Amino acid sequence: MNGIIGGTSLLNSSTFRSWDEQKIETPYGDTYAKIKDNTVFVQRHGNPPVPPHQINHKANIWAFNNLNVRQILSVNSVGSLKMKLKPGTFVIPDDFISLWSISTFFEKEMKFIVPGMHEGVKEYIAALCKKLRFNVHSGGIYIQTTGPRLETKAEIRLLKRFGDIVGMTMASEATLCMESEIPYVSLCSVDNYCNGIAKIPLTIEEINMNWQQNMQTIETLVKVVIEKGFA
Predict the structure, then answer these.
(1) In the chain, which residue ranges form alpha helices assigned H by DSSP?
(2) How many Å apart are CA 190 and CA 86, to the nearest integer?
(3) Strand 71-80 vs strand 2-6: parallel, antiparallel, or unpaired?
(4) Backbone φ and ψ of 72, nearest 5°
């Protein structure tokens, strides 16, 4: 089984509307998955959607594992810390920073992992994006903040020294997938420059406009992955 996790960029997508929806009971609460043939889709924000700091990442990833999903493509909306990573481009991170909030299934046992993104799945998705003529950057460091507010200009001045993009979800998902031994790759949609990076002040209206424009491009990739699966 293949897995897809959608976020803001797929909230209003029509791709999964006709799929069968199942309620999945997990040790961490209930979540919902849509299933068609050999693909499982989970909207990370739920329905109705909750803000990033309230997402039940453990329930979502547990559900994938319980449904025998063996690789996951995640779509994440991000802000850019670098002028060269313009809104409308895509980044496939190969590392991340999440020092403030670390999700884990190992709450009550002495078990550790050495975190690392899955190189094989990353390279496959990167090659597929290039074949589809996406403006994609393979590699980069994702920094996860807790939200729900965006970062201050002072915080961005600090973070841009260490990373390329900022979001509120990917590191939690990636960590839980690593603990579950599920290969995971993220396609990050750059929807805005982070607060203070560009000369023009950041607005929520700009973010909303950009992610709506990126949605069609993301849906193109998702449909190919649904049809062809992973390498």
Answers:
(1) 57-66, 119-131, 153-159, 170-179, 204-228
(2) 7
(3) parallel
(4) -130, 130
Architecture of domain 2-228: 3-Layer(aba) Sandwich (3.40)
| CB-side neighbour CA atoms (13 Å) of 207 | 14
Please give the structure tokens belonging to residue 108. Answer: 């009550």
| Residue 25, helix vs strand vs coil | strand
Residue pLDDT, tens place only, 9-40: 676 788 888 899 999 999 999 999 999 999 99
Residues in Cβ contact with 127 at an 8 Å cutoff, skipping those fewer than 6 apart:
none
How far is the C-alpha of 153 from the C-alpha of 185, rounded, in Å?
A: 29
* pLDDT at position 9: 67
Q: Report yes or no: 32 and 23 within 8 Å, Cβ to Cβ.
A: yes
Closest by CA to 136, choosing from 207, 86, 79, is 86
What is the spatial distance between Cα 55 and Cα 99, in angstroms, rounded to a whole number? 18
CA dihedral 221, 123, 174, 202 (to 10 degrees): -60
Burial of 107 (0-12, 13-18, 19+ CB in 10 A): exposed
| Number of residues assigned to the chain | 231
Return the domain boundaries, the chain: 2-228
Rounded to whole angstroms, how far apart are CA atoms 94 and 109?
Answer: 28
- Write out the two tokens for 172: 């939690």
Return the pLDDT at 128: 93
Give the span between the Cα atoms of 41 and 60, in whole angstroms.
10
Residue written as tokens 């739920």? 46
